Structure formats: C-alpha cells, structure tokens
Amino acid sequence: MARAKLPVSLGPDPNTRAPHYTLPPGACDTHAHIFGPPDLYPYAETRRYTPPAAPLEHYLAMQKITGLSRAVFVTPQAHGHDNQVILDGIAAIGDNARGIANIDESFDDRTLDALHEGGIRGARFHLMDDRPGSEEHLSAHLPALQKRNWVLDLHLDPKDLVHHESYIRALPIVTIIDHMARVRARDGVQQPAFQLLLDLIRDDRFWIKLCSFDKISATPKAHVEGSLPFMDMVPFAQAVLAVAPDRVIWGTDWPHGNTFMPGRTPNEGDLLDLLAVIAPDEALRKKVLVDNPARLFGFPAA
What per-residue string of b and e applies to 144-167 under the rule 16 or more CB within 10 Å gives b? Predict the structure, then answer.
C-alpha cells in the first residue's frame, strides 16, 4: 500500500539578525536540529513530515550572526534513530557542541558507549499520543542513561504531563522537560499542566527548556511593526525562572521544523531579544545561556 504524501515543512528565516545586545561568551543554544542534506543523511521512512535541508553550515552561519557559541544538537524525528547527522556536527565543532540522541532497543552497550564518545549526553523520549513512546519503553532505557550519567529529555504535551504525573514524579534521573511541556499560552498560567510543571521543578531532578514559543504562543506575529512576537509566553517563562533559576535552559529549535504556517517561523534575533524581556537582569540571563547548560552538559568554563 502506497504511503500517504507527507507534508513539507517551512525552512528557517533566511534573514537572521543579531539581537540588540551582546551575548556572553559561551552562550549556548540547547535545542537545535540538523536536517540532512538528505543525499548524505537520508530521512527516515517513519518520519511524520519532510523538512527542507538545513545543514550544519547554515546553522553555524546563524550562530555567527547572533553570537551564540555553543550548541546541543537533538536528533530530529525526521532522521529516526540514525544519530549520525548530529554526531558529525559535534565532531566538526568540537568541545562547544553536545548531543541528545534517539535510541531504541537495537542500541547495545557498545553502540551507546560510542555515542557517548561522540559527545552525546542524553536521550530523548516521548510520552505523547501522536508519536511512539510509552512509560514501559522509557523505563526499559533508564538504566542505560543512568550508567552513562545522561540526562533524559522528555517531550510531552500538557495533557500528557498531567496524565503521566505519577510516573514522571518517580523518575530516578535528571530530566529536562522539553519545550516547557508545550503549555499553550491561550490556556493561561493557571492551567493545571503549568501549575504542575512549576511544582515539578521545585525538585532539583527537573530542568526546563525554554523553546518553541512559536508553536505554543497564541500570537504568532508581532502586533506592531518592530515589536516582538510571542510576548504572551513571557509570564510563563518568568514564572519558571522564579522557581528554578539554576535549572532553566534556552534553545532556538532551529530550523523550526514541523512549521507549516507562513509567519510562524521565528527569527533567532527575535528569540534572543525575547529572552532579554523574559530575563532583563544580565546575571540571570547569563545563568540561562551559559552557566546552567555548562553545568548540565559538561561544557568547559567559558
């Protein structure tokens, strides 16, 4: 039976601009993807959509413009469980890059050790209705993460966070709640999932990644020319920082795959300026951009 035609996502904003402030040395983007190019790194047959090529060279050009100097690459779902695209990216950059891999039961100790040698410092798992993953699947892999002192990058939606609350509270490992659990701005800061998130991060096992605001904001574009988009996410991010300022990290989600609506692909300059609105205090912003990711992923002192 022929496979249904897959949607093709938009590419990144081609006109990256610099933020309106100078980033501190060692500023880290903790959530970036590399897509292909597919002639060198084929996309997985199991992918949910087809992204345009977004190779390492394009990412490095964005870094140079913005002032970002470190990166944590996350293997995208479009590449399935083939982590070679990010391993090669880490190898090209060196000690200023780390990775979060996709793994399954086919990965033995030797393969996992090779990933660690290649700069992988965590693995990503989903507890969501629209992609593979379960408590049982995740539990089967926790010993491998613990053995290598890897972090768990947990990707889920608000309803899934609530549904799996008991399981998540019992996780015996440092866990990043990816994309701030994708809580939707339209549901307000009092929504049960966000209040649960704030309670979780009072425990020092849990970290929060500020990322993908374009996908969860109710205001995809700036209302006034020259102003910033996604401003409705500011109260959420500030609430997270108020609870756990030492366990908050930030990511671009470059090149913003799985984006199909024109106008929603953000500019990295806007995202960094939005971070300055969220954390106007320079010392706090340095924690988010430099100190926290360095501690979590083992980067050298900036």
Answer: ebeebebbbbbbbbbebbbebeee
Q: pLDDT digits over 9-61, tens only?
A: 889 999 999 999 999 999 999 999 999 999 999 999 999 899 999 999 999 99
Given a contact cutoff of 8 angstroms between Cβ atoms, the answer to whether 19 and 67 are in contact is yes
Q: b/e per residue, 235-268, with b = 16+ CB within 10 A?
A: ebbeebbeebbebbbbbbbbbbbbbeeeebbbbb
pTM: 0.95
Residues 6+ apart with CB under 8 A from 276: 19, 20, 21, 285
Q: What are the φ and ψ backbone dihedral angles of 281, each rounded to 5 degrees? A: -75, 125
Number of neighbours of residue 36 by Cβ within 10 angstroms: 19
- The fold adopted by the segment(s) 28-296 is TIM Barrel (3.20.20)
Cα angle for residues 152, 154, 155 (degrees, 5° grid)? 155
Query: Residues 153, 160, 214, 253: which is the catalytic one?
Result: 253
**pLDDT digits 0-9 by tens, 116-168:** 999 999 999 999 987 888 999 999 999 999 999 999 999 999 999 999 999 99
Supply the DSSP symbol for 192. H
Residue linked to tokens 């190019």: 37
Active site residue 95: no
Amino acid type, 203 = D
Q: Residue 180 CB: number of other CB atoms within 10 A?
A: 21
